Amino acid sequence: MLQRLVLVLCAVLLASCASGTKITDFNDRSVGYGWLNIKEVDANRLHSVDIYQYRPQTSEPFYPAAVKPFKNGFLYYTMALPAGSHKTHSAAGQACMGILCSNTTYRYSFGRQGDDFGAIVIKNPGVYHMGSYRLKEVKTGLFEQGKFEVVPATDAPSRRELLEEILKEAQDVPVIAERIKRELAQLR
Amino acid sequence: MKKLLPLLLALLLQACATPSMLPAATELKAGSGEVVVIGKIELVPPISPLEQQTHWNVIGEKRMLGHVFMATGESYKPVNTGRIDGAEFQATLEAEWGTPFMVKVARQPRTYFNGGMTHLNVMRQEMLWFPGGLYFEVPQGATAVYIGTLRYHRNDFNSITRVEIVDERKDIPLVLKTGGSPAEVRSALLKKLR
Predict the structure, then answer these.
(1) Which one of A86, A118, A159, B5 is least enclosed by Cβ atoms within 10 Å?
(2) Per-residue pLDDT tens for A117-152?
(3) What is the ipTM of this complex?
(4) How far apart are the first and last CA of chain A?
(5) Are A112 and B126 spatial neighbours (Cβ–Cβ below 8 Å)?
(6) Nearest to A112 among B48, B128, B155 (CB)
(7) pLDDT for position B97
(8) Where are the domains of chain B?
(9) Contacts of B146 by beta carbon, 8 Å cutoff, 6+ apart
């Protein structure tokens, strides 16, 4: 009896941990991708980037992006964006040395206001570049919280390089792979 | 050295200043040196619950969400956006979005709106900022004034695209719960700084 109860409790706990809706049909979804250089902030290893859906409003507005080290920075992308207005919302990472990482997570929020950085409006399913940026520490007072600013990256990989990298991971989603190939064909 | 200590303490206290709200008024009578101010602040399109993140463990969150906090002062000093500096919010007009307010403001030649903010996620300190650069002047002898509806328009990404001031005197009776006649309220519509 007790064993059954424990199993039920575990199932309930696991169910409550699950979040987000799993997307299986990518026909009406778009790729959003970007690149971040974090050399000038405390974190040196990114482990998450979130993209926020502004319009249409939804109860599940956050799209976690895949993140991978790429050309002296970090490539991030998602293949799940529906039509609407989206913006890179935040990035989080740690300071690491080899395999050892500090237990502090640094979170860089791009804010919920303004379309200067990382904002896209998707009208038709396709491939959308959200920009390449450099995060830069800003000096603050002794008792002030750390601040950072976002500036366009001049040393970023080309869109072609970024898309070719994403394409390697998109082979098991044919509709998305096809869209990336089409986008690549249009890039010079 | 002893002289430096109070200065240092004053600086520390200023750095820790907490925002202070303008007192709500319940009638049209104002104390000496005060004036009753009636108006409204709107956002188009309005903030929906889907845009706000709530947390069960954040004390006072309910009061903060759905409200706009406008820094006012006797001179125009635009607030620093990005982070709340308590020193800039020492005479804050707190209003529920789209609901008429009635508060007491210090009687001064001009009262400036220096910029405002509203919370989207209190725990993560995510907020939207609204430009100031507006003021109202109290006519001679007036004890209560109506400053209009301050209406902000925003785009998909919450950038403020337009600011307008609308005369909606029909709002005045809505806040006069304990008597008083709308006729006693003089018009002093907000004006934009040039």
Answers:
(1) B5
(2) 889 999 999 999 999 999 988 776 655 566 788 899
(3) 0.81
(4) 67
(5) yes
(6) B128
(7) 97
(8) 19-192
(9) B38, B39, B169, B171, B172, B185, B186, B187, B188, B189
